[in-house]
Fold these 3 entries.
Entry 1:
Amino acid sequence: MPAAPVQNLTDLDLDIEGMTCTACARRIEKNLNKVEGVSAYVDFATEKAHLTVAPDVTREQLVKVVEDTGYSVGADHSELDAMKWRLIVGAAIAAPVAVIAMVPALMMAIPHWEVWAAVATAPVAGWVAWPFHSAAFKNLRHRATTMDTLVSLGVIIAYVYGISQVIVGGMDTYFEVAAVVPTVVLFGRWLEVRTRRSATDSVRALMAAIPDDAVVRRDGVQQIIHTSQVKVGDVLVVASGQKIPVDSVVFEGTGQLDNSLITGESVPEQVTVGQAVAAGAINLGAALVLTATAASGNSRIAQIADLVREASAQKAKITSLTDRISAVFVPAVIGISVLTFAAWMVLASDPNTALRAAVAVLVIACPCALGIAVPVSLAVATALGAKRGIVIRHPDTLALLNRLSVVILDKTGTVTTGQLRVAQSIPIAGFDAARAVALAAAVERNSVHPIARAIAAMDSSLTATSVTETAGSGVVGTVDGTEVEVSRRAAETFANAAEVQAAVAQLGAVSIAIVSVTNHAVLVIGLEDDVRLQAAEAIADLSALGVEPVILSGDAQARVAAVATQTGVKRFFAGVTPEHKLETVNQIRTEGHGLVAMVGDGLNDVAALAGADVGIAMGSGTHATQSAAAITILDDDPRAIGYAIRLGRTTWRNIKQNLGWAFGYNIVLIPVAALGLLNPMLAGTAMAFSSISVVLNAMRLRRAAR
């Protein structure tokens, strides 16, 4: 029977088992990309292959490619358990073997010690070290060498040489090397895998916040259904202590919600009728009756999960640097080891000394730390960001944050709350005020823009048709046969410009919306929203970091100036259209002081977010906004911008420190090993310690980035 095709799927993830380094990931990725209709990226940190496939590509084809490359596809994550048992067995054998080997009196006290050591070390050199042997063999099949090649060679040579000494009755064996090296290296790798696993714990906790079941009222009957079956408009009942199953609006009741899993804030949120609530929040008060506004697959948490999945599918450019280095470094080390053996044979004619020095070179040079130096830091930093409500979709963004000099902030929804209210409205041209308000509310009713929501709330008596919205400009629709526009056009563009200008001047420092019929303005509306309580603190934080804050808005000059003064921003741009927002970003970038970030939440910010060096979206913004940005701030707290910059700077320093550790051991100790001054067992311990040091240094990010 032919394999079933992947039914109209464009995206597919595969769990990859058996990878030991980034070179493994690149090899699998290369072979998957050879399949026609497949675009693949293999992420070593998450052990997943992220693929975009054509409809005629089967999953079986993809699995076969992975297996032919020498790896496997699995649905579970058993690697940690397998490594744990190998580590336990290795430690139980390596510890006594190493202690006895280093104390001659103990060796002499045990009859036929060499034979016992050979038998005891066999399972370590074989089974415990098997991941290294297997990886080395896979690499050999593809005519490549990696860090595993060095470990495997070191263990095999040490054990085989020890066996030869037992056969000929020699005493100078190196079984402790074959036992200690794979065990200690495996311990470093176990720490690395644990770090990669724990880096996604916050995301798993977020997804676990959605309950499996929901209580709904349908046709007057209350019933329990699976959350995936909830439809938009369903009436939900959430008892005290239960989680909200889907994004909803409060229909009946008041209470408090624990949103800590979503926003990171521990203070409960007070909710009342008409207020939007998110899936995953815990009801701390009396029972709430809700109206579902989204299906489970479209909830805020589901969208966040999509962002996180996209984040794990992004290739960090800096990570590829270590792959390129390893491709040259490993063959060079093998060559040095061969030359070391040859040199000692020529100079000393002593195979024992020559072998000891050659093995020490192989072991000490193993660049395991190099392979994990970058991904471990990025994984820890990404997890830290998630715990603070910051989803980092592109790992390279952490390096870019280190070089920011300007942060451009959209005013409405970023510096201000975005919850606009109508402060005052002035009818002009002799038009009836109530009629003008009803016309404006009708055409704005289906828009999600903050100005539109505020105007739509004023009246509900009329309905508009043929409504067209232009981002950053306004809305046009037909009401009772009359074409009505609600816009933010300049006063001079209307037929009765003088009246409009007088009304605008009377309203003062507020946001302006103008209602017009056949290009004659009939109502000028002034809207206000509150500056976020944290905005001034966030902007002061940016200045303290040496980053210039700039406000960019399509709003009126007076209103933007007032907000800038209130928050302490010295430079601002007002009346900017969406297209000109991108131009402004590019203009500031040409000043040449450093990289530029853009922070926004609306459809009119998308172009600027995509065009900036770093795009930062507010969590309450549109999906298009979040898709265009590299970072999403889930709880809309602008103080997270400064934290993200500090996290980027700290992560970059941490990466450089890790690379220093990785290369430092190699550069310093390879000559020492080649001169015969380093015991292979001590070389293995030092090499493994470099990997452990890298992991522990990456974990320091948790304290440094607070």
Note: The chain has 27 helices and 26 strands.
Entry 2:
Amino acid sequence: MKKYYFLIFIFFIIFHTSSFAEPILLEEIIVRGKKEVPQEECLDIKEIRETPARDVGEALKVIEGINAVRKGAIANDIVLRSFKRDNINFLIDGMRIYGACPNRMDPNSFHIDFMEIETISVLKGPFDVKNPGSLGGLVEIKTTRPNKGWESNINTFTGSDENISASFNVSHAGEGGDLLLGYSHRYSLPYRDGKGNRITEFDSTGSNAYKKREKNEKAYSINTYWSKFGINLLDNHRLEVDYARQEADDVIYPYLLMDAVYDDTDRLNMNYEISAPGHYIKKFKAQFYWNQVKHDMTDEKRLSSLGFDEYKMRCYAEAETLGGKLESDILLSGGILTLGVDYYFRNWDAENTLPMRKQKMIPDVDSSNMGTYMEYGQPMGEEIRLTLGMRFDYTKTKANDDRTGLYTLYHNTMDREKTDSYAGGNIQILYFPVKEIEFFGGFGCITRPPAPDERYIAMQKPQMIPDWVGNPELNPSQNREFDFGVKYLGDIFYGKTTFFYSDVKDFISIYDLVGPVKSARSFRNVDAILYGGEINLNLFLPLDFYLQGGLSYTRARDDTHNKPLPEIPPLQIRIASRYDVDRYFAEIEGIFADGQHRVDPELNEEKTPGWGIMNLKFGVKFKKINIFAGVNNLFDRYYHEHLSYQRDPFRSGIKVPETGRNFYLNLACSL
């Protein structure tokens, strides 16, 4: 790790000796440097297109503080400051969406294509009161809207291992309304790691290994269709309706014991907005949304299925979500008061098939939430801005199928229904002593109820293999967090440093539960402490060069049992040098991660060594054509990220390595 500290030292020396540089205001620095909300970062589609990212989880890793759980070639699960799964909210144009797989083969962020996306915003910490349950933060996607007149966009991508993507949209916008239609196809073979092996090859003898004929078959094939229709009813009234369908087939997950046969998603979102309906009312918005996911997975590609007709294991799951929101912005004493009420209903059902029998793994669980919120932002002179937020929620969960035999066996309870009521809020202060410097601080307190699987999952496994059982007696988790930092935006230098301290009461953690007959994996409440921060620095140099660097770190412990929290990413550093003019750019980037030695031995969590890779990328712009090309992992390094090893519940025991040297070329064209 000493070599990383040396690189950081050299990096800062360069910063302090380059004060003579001419200003070069690049677009991505403006996007990240002029946000009013200091805890928020923003990523636009141009930045995504510069990388070989296959999904949203992988694309967001360029933001300090974000990691991803890799399960295969695609469908990376987002981790924000070590908060993961239901501890962070994920929204598409304000719509909640949940995957169907009990082991998150299809995380929330999997169900959208890049061609649909305009920007992705990330709000770090418990500072979102407009949506229920943003315990560790919020990730929200804004989809594209048609521009005036006729327009069409085409994007093609090709990379190593037959990684291809082709997408297009066509749109028209006029005074009365607008329409957008789009389609995308994505396909890839299993990628190769730094040793030249495909991710289907590194386990060649175990029962979870892939059959010989499957090792060079496709890693996924995904088709996505979407549409957006808007009507401008009056000068200040707008109705917008979006519908999308995604069909993902044959998606492999070496991280797990099974692979997805298919994963089909339907999304419907409707918004009605009135701008300035009254003198004091700036905006009124009504939203309704519905989505469903149907997911089938088996082990038919694995050696474990030999001797059976088609498969040994299968799980079929469905998830459905519907909800809505009413929200209004009101002028009040020189500030903006936002008032709102929201509701969502979520159903989750999953049936597992083993040779011994079929069983309801997720027993047809209904979850509903009704909430109300307010947020008020008030300038207090030219130097200070104060924001206050409050939220109240009532949540109900119910398991409609009876699996109380397992709950009684392990937790001595027959509960299948719970209600939770809770309140939260935040206070944030921005202070501008001079034009270039901003200090910010805030305290947030947000609660989220246990997820359906955390309370009601019920899976009996054969022989002495541990069962998998939820805990109906779990309490909601409450995050009480302080954030503070400083941001500087000058002509030649932009920097931002953020620190956070999070005290989570009743954090929901996995543990091994010893039962009367055998053990099980289950959930329990613990008190947890997480703290750390991020640093982002940018220096504009002469001759159209600039340097960029970032650092993120989180340290976490289980205070109840005086041990590290499991699955926490290590210290990570990113350093890049870029040459950028109007028509083209070139960039060299180094990414380094320290080893992670703070692990939970009770869950058989393994330590991970540190690693470092180098990436190159180039770009050219000619009129309305953008070309991006690059190579990631230039020196073909073999390495694992710390979150690459799954323990629960269908653990394969396999660490999924990251991609080896891989080339890519992306062409984007607007007509």
Note: The radius of gyration is 25 Å.
Entry 3:
Amino acid sequence: MDAHALPLLKLYETVNKAYVIPIYQRPFAWDARKAEELLNAVLQDANDNAKITSLGTLLFCNIPGANPFGNNTPATVAPSTMWEVVDGQQRLTVFAIIGHALNERHKALVGVGLTYSPPLEFDMLFATSRTRAGKTVPVLIRDGDNYDIGFSSDLAMMLNSFAGHAAWPVGVGKRLVETCNAIGKWINEELNLSNFASFSDHFLSKCTVVQVVADDQDTAFTMFEPLNSTSEPLTAFEVYRSKAVRQLTAQFPKTELLLAYEASKRDEVISRSNTLIFSMAQVNSGVRPRIHFVPLKHYLDGQVTATFIAHFEEAADFFRTVWLEQTAPDAWFNDEAKNCVRFLKAVSHDIAVPLILRYYLTRRVDVGRVLKIVVAFYSLWRAAYPTNALPKTYRALLDPNSADDVSIAGRKALKSPVDLAAYFKGKLSEKIGALAPGQTIDKKWLHDTNLTYEELKTLCRLFIFINMGATIKSNLVPDDPWTSVDDVEHIFASGLAGAPENLHCIGNLTFLPDKVNRSLQDTPWEEKREVYAWLASPVRGAVPANYASTGKPVPKAVKDFIVDAASPALGHLAGLAARTTWDKAEIDARSTAMLCRVWDVLHNSWLNP
């Protein structure tokens, strides 16, 4: 590690050196106002004869080995020394544009009498000379540019046009054009025969940067917080992509679709990138790096292989089309699979993601069944027991030291859905524990379960679906059944006086259309019985204006739903409507019946694929 405070001219006095902006850096992001603020600060300090103007820190690292930006032949025009710009691309770009604008202004002022020779040629801020052919080439390029083959980035093509080797490139980014125009306009308007020399001398000799050169990229990112010039944290993927492009010319179209740079906030990009790498590490070899830039980067440094990149791309596709959007076109990704994903997201059961991803990468046809197995296992466990032991259960499936390891790099075969279900059933049985004489495992689970809507809303919704016979999908709710809460009905209304202590238990819950549900708020049981009977009947008749039991008006939303020919008959309410009373005893009995039904579906069916 080497660090020095340097006047700007010292940064450019080595004629055979250039700077590379790596692919992980985003495009130029400064706006014209920011560049003008820098110029105004320099002019003010020049007028005040200030001793120094600080332009911040520039962080570089060496690019070892053969120069990837030329053809490495004796005839190459690529500079022999290349430094990677870890932090500072925005300022270096602005310095180059200022150098060009000062160069043009100098020519114009010399024509009207200026006698001034700058301490450093202005064009050295945007071009480096190669003495072999005397050809100037850009001092600043981006990954993907090649000095011998040609330039593809807006930045390099712009600097090449400054040197007079090509016309101004077509289609240059808006920010770059606006900043270039603003700097040229400012210099033409603010600098004249009286102040051009003092401004230029101050800019080149008294504007100071702290140049930090790390021995390698690891050192750069370990010793310094990984920020680029827009103060936006980098991601480990962005650094990895740069290395993979250089070594393997790898492309990452699916990963870029997932990260959606232009449409996403930076913290979303970072979160998605970290989740992708963290999950891939577990799936690939059972490694569990901390979700932090440096450990994730260190893990990826050892994964620059075509096979890993192919899996990485497919993993990105999983997170985008399956986990985030639920748009995957595969036949196995039916409505039931989609709603399993939505359920797992709603309960934040993220520890299951690497396991599901493992099947997606190598045995995709089984993912639908794996989703149901995971949902069943989690739901039965969570309804009765705390989740602190769940991570260990999942990690054993992706742990090279475990007999159940199924990681890609592991030596054991991927479990079939039947074997995976047996594994989870075994873990659930261990958690349920020893049975009393004559006690069955389902009765022990039922005894341990105390499922309430106050604590586990999403799980209650799933259990209501299953009790209705709708498994995990209902025509009463939106496409995503875990985001709406207006359709969960407390049968004994929660706002009524004398509410039983088991008010929020699963047995007191059902589904109603959201508008109907809201209209029945704090409605007593005798009135609800009438509504349930009307809603459950497959034969629709006229709805009376008033309840027969109390004489109170029937809500408009109830009448509108029933008279609408498109409204379905809600058969799941028929059994409730047949009850004459509804209180604690009825709720307890229904809770037991519902949980028995759920056990039968999840344990005896979903965990027996």
Note: Confidence is low (pLDDT under 50) at residues 226-230, 474-482.
